[in-house]
Amino acid sequence: MLQLLNAKDGPRAAVGPFSDADLHLAESLASQAAIALTNRLLINRLEGLFESFIGLINAAIDDKSP
Prior knowledge:
The chain has one helix at 20-64. By secondary structure, it is mainly alpha-helical.
């Protein structure tokens, strides 16, 4: 989660809009977070596929030579 609060120039400055650089940085961080999440999901699915493949091989070996 990325939460942006009150853009200020200093500790006593008034609240104002975020600069273009701040917005670009926030978009970049959000993009990196989305990529990391997608990669983790793909890795989890790949691990599940690998486990299923190993289970299939084990079943085939057991069926052939109990």
